[in-house]
Write a structure and sequence with these properties.
The chain is an alpha/beta fold. It folds into 2 domains: 8-126, Chitobiase/beta-hexosaminidase domain 2-like (Chitobiase, domain 2, 2-Layer Sandwich); 132-319 and 399-506, TIM Barrel. It has helices at 31-45, 90-103, 146-158, 183-186, 219-231, 247-252, 280-296, 312-316, 318-327, 332-349, 382-389, 399-402, 425-429, 440-443, 461-468, 471-480, 490-506; strands at 8-18, 24-26, 60-64, 74-78, 83-87, 117-126, 132-138, 163-167, 169-170, 173-174, 190-191, 195-196, 207-208, 213-214, 235-239, 301-303, 353-357, 374-377, 393-396, 446-453. The protein has an 8-stranded parallel β-sheet. It has a 6-stranded mixed β-sheet with strand order 1-6-4-5-3-2, with helices on one face. It is globular.
């Protein structure tokens, strides 16, 4: 009935009647959860969820008990007389409300006319396995409107996902307003046209739509998104990808590049050879950008990419070669490791932690990186295993299991154009974030896992929802459940998922239908 599946769930006789007369009491620590109750059930019941009269019992009671329950844990008890949610912390109470939303009839999630709703009597006790339960959205390739980002945050909250990784910069578009460098959005946020069809063919066969594409988030937009996420106990982790995937920025400010060819905002997909130079002024630019990022995003983690950085220009650049000699580095891979170290040092000095894709391990491995760097392992689990064994914290994000820009069926003719690969729902459901070969000591460095939606071939929010759901439902199970208790069969999961899809219908989500 509840997804992700709780650690313990029992159904009892009877039901509580949720109506316009239902009252609500909440301790101070549960204020955010109380707001969630009002948002979720106010339109469907017509109740303001006021406090009960003096001496009367509340219909819904919310409270924190950190002595009895751990972080993010909760209990939900529904009887014919009342609903009680207790959390180990404010987030736990909030997750109890999300479970309550899933035991109320699905129609209540979209009801705009007040009525009475039966809530089955249940008792639930639950807590997550992993602290990092993330979802990444790439808005660099295709810009997504703020309204969709807010809708996605609501859906993440419903599934008890707590990290939103916001991929804001790319070769094909810079999406974040930076006051010190206005040309990043004046120039870098726009491309004149976009490739039609797949990039995996000769350049001579490429055709384009001739339609300008772009957009960006103002700093006020970001403040709204961050506050909206915080109300739902979601941390927004921004990503400013560097030193590769910076073509839009180099187009806006050509002095950031290596001067080998004239830059222009990318119109095709793939990996660009044009990367940042390693001049002191360019490192200052990166720090300036990060300073504004830190002012907007309170997240303890800041993602600086580090992936897919070709070294062609650095090999040809006299300046880059001089930097290698000056620092006594072995090669260009070591130069990128040095660059990573510079950014990690800046973030650490400002109380934040550097997160990078697993390429940051190149140029010396974990020993050559600051000890507080977090490695996000995407090419496989191998980078995460290496990093964890080397004492670095890890977020598992292997493309073979949690890349949602991959096809959902091996029959590509029945699916929208995708980048390639095959990640069906069953594979996501069976994913285990801790690799079996990882020793217990190293496994403690696995913070959790994250699903990715890259948008080269995802031009709008309807398509994004189709690629995300219901795979994100299965992913929520993978990062919430404790595998020590065993994994329910995939068929059993589908039996629980089918009624859950009615909730997605009620919320207006364009999910992929289940295979017959």
């Amino acid at each position: 009935m509840i997804l992700p599946k709780p650690s313990r769930f029992e159904r009892h006789d009877g039901a509580f009647l949720l109506s316009s007369r239902t009252t609500l009491s909440a301790d101070d620590a549960s204020a955010a959860a109380a707001s969630a109750v009002r948002r979720a059930f106010g339109p469907a019941t017509g109740s303001a969820f006021d406090a009960p009269e003096s001496g009367a019992a509340a219909g819904i009671s919310l409270s924190v008990d950190s002595e009895r329950l751990g972080p993010e844990a909760y209990t939900l008890t529904v009887t014919p007389e009342r609903i009680e949610i207790v959390g180990g912390d404010p987030a736990g109470v909030f997750y109890g409300v999300q479970s309550l939303r899933q035991v109320v009839p699905a129609e209540a999630l979209s009801a705009s006319t007040a009525g009475d709703w039966e809530v089955p009597a249940v008792s639930v006790r639950d807590q997550p396995k992993f602290g990092w339960r993330g979802t990444m959205l790439d808005v660099g390739r295709h810009f997504m409107p703020k309204e969709f980002v807010l809708k996605l945050l609501d859906l993440l909250a419903l599934h008890k996902l707590n990290v939103f990784h916001f991929h804001l910069t790319e070769d094909q578009g810079w999406r974040l307003a930076i006051e010190k460098y206005p040309r990043l959005t004046e120039v870098g946020a726009w491309r004149p046209e976009t490739l039609i069809g797949h990039a995996n063919r000769p350049a001579s066969e490429h055709t384009f739509d001739g339609t300008p594409h772009g957009g960006f988030y103002t700093q006020d937009d970001i403040r709204e998104i961050v506050a909206y996420a915080a109300e739902r106990f979601i941390t927004v982790v921004p990503e400013i990808d560097m030193p590769g995937h910076m073509l839009a920025a180099i187009t806006a400010y050509p002095e950031l590049g290596n001067g080998i060819k004239p830059p222009k905002v990318g119109t095709v997909w793939g990996i660009s050879d044009e990367v940042l130079n390693v001049e002191d002024s360019t490192l200052d630019f990166c720090r300036d950008v990060l300073a504004e990022v830190l002012a907007l995003f309170p997240s303890p983690f800041v993602h600086c990419g580090g992936d897919e950085c070709p070294k062609v220009e650095w090999k040809a650049s006299e300046s880059a070669q001089a930097r290698i000699r000056e620092l006594g580095l072995a090669d260009e891979d070591a130069l990128q490791a040095w660059f990573t170290g510079q950014m990690a040092k800046y973030l650490a000095e400002n109380g934040r932690r550097f997160v990078g894709w697993d390429e940051v391990l190149e140029g010396g491995g974990p020993a050559n990186l600051p000890s507080d760097v977090v490695v996000m392992s995407w090419r496989s689990e191998e980078g995460g295993i290496e990093a964890a064994r080397g004492g670095l914290d890890v977020v598992m994000a292997p493309c073979q299991y949690v890349y949602f820009d991959y096809y959902q069926s091996d029959n590509h003719d029945t699916e929208p154009l995708a980048i390639g690969g095959h990640v069906p729902l069953s594979k996501v459901y069976g994913y285990r974030p801790i690799p079996g070969e990882l020793e217990a000591e190293a496994a403690r460095h696995v913070l959790g896992a994250q699903a990715q939606l890259w948008t080269e071939y995802v031009p709008n929010q309807e398509h994004a929802e189709y690629m995300l759901f219901p795979r994100l439902c299965a992913f929520a199970e993978a990062v919430w459940r404790d595998d020590a208790n065993g994994i329910e069969s995939y068929d059993a999961f589908l039996e629980r998922l089918r009624p859950h899809l009615a909730r997605l219908d009620a919320l207006g989500v364009n999910y992929r239908k289940l295979d017959d």
